[in-house]
């Protein structure tokens, strides 16, 4: 349970930071009516992940240190330092090794995370263009809106037949009313 809360405490700043940086970069570099290339989206995603990972990495460090002293491991993981909680772990790490120890291992993690999120945001933007048709020239097949009162199982042929029936019915009514007025 403790490790779950630590994981969530690290995931929330990462997710919020990544999204906030990406959206602000998008606004900052956005030119009117010009879409970014895939490379620009990749760079935005990489920058967003880098900033977010740097901000949230101390939580990851604390989580790993607390997992290493798990009572489920033989001899409590073989570590000689024991923590009473997340705040105690932060305090001991800063006291014993300094503030920069919270970011120990950040470089290796960046090598893994940064390209992953660059690709993720590139794919996201590509799918957004396909699904939302933001080019202004064609209508998206995904923007199909249902019409109230129309049976959605009808195909185009059935609708054309129904329209012909209604036109014929109106023309017959018009003819019969004009004949009825003569008499």
Q: Can you describe what's shown?
A:
This protein has helices at 2-29, 38-68, 86-97, 106-132, 156-182. The chain is mostly helical and 183 residues long. The protein has five helices and no strands. The protein has two domains: 2-136, Mitochondrial carrier domain (Mitochondrial carrier fold), CATH 1.50.40.10; 151-183. Belongs to the mitochondrial carrier (TC 2.A.29) family.
Name the CATH architecture of the largest domain. Alpha/alpha barrel
| CATH fold-level name of the largest domain | Mitochondrial carrier fold
The overall strand count is 0
Overall geometric form? elongated
Largest sheet: none
The count of domains is 2
What is the rounded distance between the termini?
91 Å
Percentage of β-strand residues? under 5%
Using the CA coordinates, give the radius of gyration.
31 Å
CATH superfamily of the largest domain: Mitochondrial carrier domain
Mean pLDDT: 76
Output the CATH class name of the largest domain: Mainly Alpha
Contiguous low-pLDDT stretches (5 residues minimum) are none
Q: Helix- and strand-based class?
A: mainly alpha
């Amino acid at each position: 349970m403790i490790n779950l809360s630590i994981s969530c405490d690290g995931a929330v700043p990462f997710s919020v930071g990544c999204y906030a940086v990406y959206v602000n970069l998008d606004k900052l570099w956005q030119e009117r009516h010009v879409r970014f290339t895939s490379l620009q989206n990749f760079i935005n995603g990489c920058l967003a992940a880098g900033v977010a990972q740097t901000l949230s990495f101390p939580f990851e460090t604390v989580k790993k240190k607390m997992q290493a002293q798990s009572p489920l491991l033989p001899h409590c993981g073989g570590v000689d330092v024991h923590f009473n909680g997340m705040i105690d772990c932060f305090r001991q790490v800063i006291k014993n090794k300094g503030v920069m120890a919270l970011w120990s291992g950040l470089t290796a993690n960046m090598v893994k995370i940064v390209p992953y999120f660059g690709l993720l945001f590139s794919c996201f933007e590509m799918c957004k263009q396909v699904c939302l048709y933001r080019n202004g020239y064609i209508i998206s097949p995904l923007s199909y809106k249902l019409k109230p009162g129309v049976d959605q199982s009808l195909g185009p042929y059935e609708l054309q037949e129904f329209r012909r029936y209604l036109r014929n019915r109106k023309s017959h009514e018009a003819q019969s009313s004009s004949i009825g007025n003569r008499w």
